[in-house]
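Notes continue from the previous slide.

Worked example: a multi-chain complex. Inputs as given:
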Amino acid sequence: MTKKVTKAGSISRRRLLTTASAGAALAVSPFRINLLQAEEAPIKIGFPVPLTGPYGAEAQDQVRAGQLAIAQFNDAGGLNGRKAELVVRDDKLNPGEAATRTLELVEKEKVNFVVGSLSAAVQLAINNVTKERGVIFNSISQSDAINEAADFSKYTFHEALNPHMTSGAVGRYAFAKFGKKVAFLTADYAYGHEMVRGFLEVGKEFNIENLGDIRHPLGTTDFSTLLPRLQALKPDILCISNFGRDQQIALKQATDFGIKKSIQIIAPLLSHASRVAAGPQAFEGVVGGCSFYWGIEDEFASTKAFNDAFRKMYDGKLPTDYGALGYGGVRTALEAVKGAGSVETDKVVAALEALKYDYYKGPQYYRKCDHQSVQSVLVIKSKSKDMKNESDVFEVLSTEEPNEKYVRACEALGHKS
Amino acid sequence: MAGLSFDLIALQLFAGLALGAIYVLFAIGLSLIFGMLTVVNFAHGAFYMVGAYVGLYLISIGGNFWICLVAVPIAIGLFGLVVERVLIRPLYGRGIDYPLLLTFGLSYVMVECVRIAFGKTGYPFDTPEVLQGAVDIGVGYFPLYRLFVIAATAVVLLALWLFLEKTSFGLIIRAGARDPQIVRILGVDVSRVWLIVFGIGTAIAGFAGLLAAPLQGVIPEMGGTILAEAFVVTVVGGMGSIGGAVLAGLLVGVVVSMTSLFAPEMAKVSIFALMAIVLIVRPQGFFGRAGLMS
């Protein structure tokens, strides 16, 4: 039992010291048993994310911001004194690894909820495990499939945007502005496929011409053999649907090949961490979408509060898009716990469904039929000059307000309306 | 997709050769070490990665890319000397799998150390200013920096060839590879020869890592992908044959490039398909000596 107290205290050194001294003082008192019981069962949130591999930069931000949500919950007294804890695992961007880690989190660590994942494909593997075992899973990365009846369960929530919403917002902005002839360079897995499908769907409204879709495997380090072909297609717009390191390298090499001279590059998502990792040159002038940018803090008090708390916890650093998702995913689960007054799965599901929240980016809510978080999409452009700080990397071009009309209809996903 | 033209095919061929040049540069170090020492250096990718990080560090403390071109291979070569002397030398004469397992483990240690020192997140590595942009090569625009990489590879190959074929030390190295015992009887310190060969091999790996950095940025895992591709190159070219590595590297680049043009999804698989075909027709690779692995 003493061992468990130390384990719960390992959240931070201060926490450990408080627990240890309190423990010493109470060791002889009759309250000892009660204290140990309260400390013994923290609310555990399993957090499988790809810490190593091509999406590592983004995943580390997810963890940082997730820890912030935990710290805020604990500082506010937890659930009647019961504290929360984040149990982080590296899923290595591999569905098999993610399923194993999630199973371990559920069976061995006995986590109350699972929040996490950073891949359209890997999150389905996690969801398979959690839905079978009746554990709430809040996914914090993009996927269309997770909304669909075949993969959905009442335990499945989706805090992130989905490709349909993202490509819709970016497509509506870009196709009206940059031209109708579009070529695609796409990561060959669920994320890329769903993004292209979304772009083509919104493209119908604009009569775009699809010049071709070149697909590359996840984790490609050289695009030099794909770029001449794309250039020869002479599109107005080159739409690059990949993520993390793939996006960094593709944009860098497209810049080297001089693609930007005559072609506007767009991306469904521009990742903040990738933009920082790849530098301003590679991303210069690229237009894309995102779920969150710290710069909207002038607009929303919740963003300002989130930014300030993050800055305080991490030496003045600002949160990124995927960081915000980590925060949102953990915070919604913990707020629902507070609302339900319990960690019982069914009560928390009901509390999540009832949430109308604004924790970091303006108003959001989980749609009843598929638990998709209905929220705004930002269309942004990468900056290369007049940057005020190292996080000042994007300019917000337009905002698509939260509206269910931008999300696929419940019936189309196979849900009963 | 329409739009196949002669220019595009020519440009694609050229892109393949440029890609091949990077494979060649990486694979000759691997091949040199295997050919002379029969050590399968699984840490080659890690040396390559460390080369990129050393370059990044030198630039951050005020150096420039041109200084790095000299300093990085020297630094990584010296590091290679230490690794050979301390870790690999005790394993000579114990069979091929001992150094293989050692270098495999070493690569994990090196990657983890870099993660601790520089973080797991990658860093940008800007192309040196004078080499930025694309130039017209007659059939289309091609990045100037990639042309520079081809030239740098050619220079390294030429220097290596001159060293091995035209210097007396090169003669000793070649003799040592063929029959170390006789060379030893003739009074040559073979262990010193092997030490230097390992140093040269790792120096070239570091140099390749530095050249790759402006193409794809710098990240601790960058050595992993290229190691798999470089093994294909050395196997196709013939384990231990430098000429084979050059030919196979260029061939792999062109095969990837041409597959990318017609069936981009197959590009990654095509490398391994090529290897399978070559191994069926000619198990020792293009210029490999049969029985070297046994």
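Summary box: Chain B has a mean pLDDT of 90. The beta strands of chain B are 134-136, 141-143.
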